[in-house]
Amino acid sequence: MPAYWISNYREVLDADKLAAYAALAGPALIEAGGTFLARGIPEKVYEAGLEQRCVLIEFESVEAALAAHDSPEYQKALEALDDGAVRDLRIVPGV
């Protein structure tokens, strides 16, 4: 069953750190089996939606998504991000 990695960027505090993170995170997550489905600022928000950067990545399973997060390559990306952004990251099983 697929799983979805959903990141919402509540605040970007350092654009350079975010760029360094993205340069490492994208390849690490693709190498771990992730497929980027959506990335960017919403075109339209409804209800309590916030106009903040979102990223949606599909993995083959929850276990694959967790392994991608915990991989040494992704951990290097997190080190590069450091305190450069306030994010909300969720891994959600598909239906």
Give short descriptive properties of this protein.
95 residues; alpha+beta; Alpha-Beta Plaits; 4-stranded antiparallel beta sheet; Dimeric_a/b-barrel; DUF1330
What are the SSEs and their pairings?
Layout: E1 3-12, H1 15-31, E2 35-40, E3 54-59, H2 62-70, H3 72-81, E4 85-93
Antiparallel strand pairs: 1-3, 1-4, 2-3
Helix pairs in contact: 1-3
What can you tell me about this protein's structure?
With 95 residues, this protein is an alpha+beta fold. The protein has a single domain, classed as 2-Layer Sandwich (Alpha-Beta Plaits), CATH 3.30.70. The protein has helices spanning 15-31, 62-70, 72-81, and strands at 3-12, 35-40, 54-59, 85-93. Strands 2-3-1-4 form a four-stranded antiparallel β-sheet. Helix 1 runs antiparallel to helix 3. It is flat and about 30 Å long. The N and C termini lie close together (7 Å). InterPro entries: Dimeric_a/b-barrel, DUF1330. Residues 2-95 form the DUF1330 domain.
Query: How many strands in all?
Result: 4
| CATH architectural designation | 2-Layer Sandwich
Distance between the termini: 7 Å
Oligomeric organization of the protein chains = single chain
Secondary-structure-based class equals alpha+beta
Percentage of β-strand residues: 25-35%
Overall domain count: 1
CATH class: Alpha Beta
Q: What spatial order of strands do you see in the largest sheet?
A: 2-3-1-4
Helix fraction?
25-40%
**What's the main sheet like?**
4 strands, antiparallel
Low-confidence stretches: none
Q: Overall mean pLDDT score?
A: 96
Pfam families: DUF1330
InterPro entries: Dimeric_a/b-barrel, DUF1330
